Amino acid sequence: MVIAENHDGHVYNWIMFERETIEFVLRAIDFYVSLLGDESRELAEDPDLASLITDDTRRELGLGRDKERANRLRQWIKSKSEESGDSYHVDISMSHGTVRFIKAVSLLYLAKLKTKRNRLASRPNVTTSTLSALDREISRKEELFSSSGVFKNASPVQLLAEYGEAPGAEEAVTPPQPNEEIALLTASRPRPVLVGSIEILDHELRRRCLDLFNQFQEAGQSERNDTVVSEASRILESRLRAVTGCTDGSTGKQLVTLAFNAQKAKLRVSSVPSEQEAAQLLFMGTFGFIRNQVQHKLLGSLPAERTLQILGWIDYLLAVIEQAERVADSP
C-alpha cells in the first residue's frame, strides 16, 4: 500500500534527533551553501557567461533566496541544538517541507562524501579497516536519510545545486581519478568493505547465499540483495519442513506453529514455556516480516551490511533448529 506524502505545511510536533545527526545536517547545509556560492562566483568571474545572466534571470534562478533560506534554517537548527545543552538527543518540531529540504541537502552531502571516499580508495596505501569504517558510516547515514523516521516518506526537494545525470551501473562503480572533477549526482554508493563480516556457519547457507551475495557485490548489483535474503528464507523453510516431516503445502508460518507450538511441539528449544513461546515468535517474525517483504516486492535499497546481518540471523535460527530436542511422541 502506497502511503500518501504529507503536505509541506504539516508539522511534526516532536522529532528526536541524535546530536550526531544534527551536526551532520549542519555540515550538509554548509556544503550546499558553499555550492551556491561557488556557482555565483564562477559566473561572476567569467564576463562572457555573466553577460548572459540578466537581473531577471538571477531572480528566476533564486540563488539568493535559496542561500538565505539555507542559512536561516542552519541558524535555527543550531540554536535548537544549543538549547539542548549536552543532551544526547535534540528535540525539534518542524514542518514536512523542512524535512524534505534537510533530506535533500543531506543526500547531496552524502554524494560528496562518496566521491571523497572513492578517491581515497584509489590510493595504494589506504588500509581496508579505514575504508570499512567509512563505508559503515556512509551506509548508516544513507539509510537514515533515505528510509528512517520522518525521512522515510518524504521526497527530497529539488535543489538548485543538483546537476548531472546518474551513470549506468558499470560507469558508476569506477572510482574517479584523484584530480578528476565529477558532478555530484554521478557519485555511486561505495561498495562496502565488509571487514570481519558475520561468520556464516551453516554449510548450505554459505554455499547457496554467500556466493550469490559476493557475486552481486563484485558486479555492482546491490539492488539484487533481496534475492539473497529470499534464498536464505527458502533454506530456513526447507529445514523446518525436513525436521517436522511435513510434506504438504504448509506455509512457513504454519511450519513454525507445527514445530514450536507449546501444546504439541515437534521441536523443544526450552523446558520453560515462555521461552518456547518466545522461540516460536522469533521464527514467526522472521517469516512474517523479513521473508514476506522479499517475496512480495522488490527491495532495491537493501544495503549489503543489512543483507549480511539477515544472513547471520537466519544462520542463528538454523542453529536453533539443529540444537532443538526432537519430541518423539509429538502427535
Automatic annotation (TrEMBL):
It comes from Stenotrophomonas maltophilia. This is Conserved hypothetical protein CHP02391 domain-containing protein. It holds the Pfam family Hypoth_Ymh. Residues 215-319 form the Conserved hypothetical protein CHP02391 domain. It comes from the Bacteria.
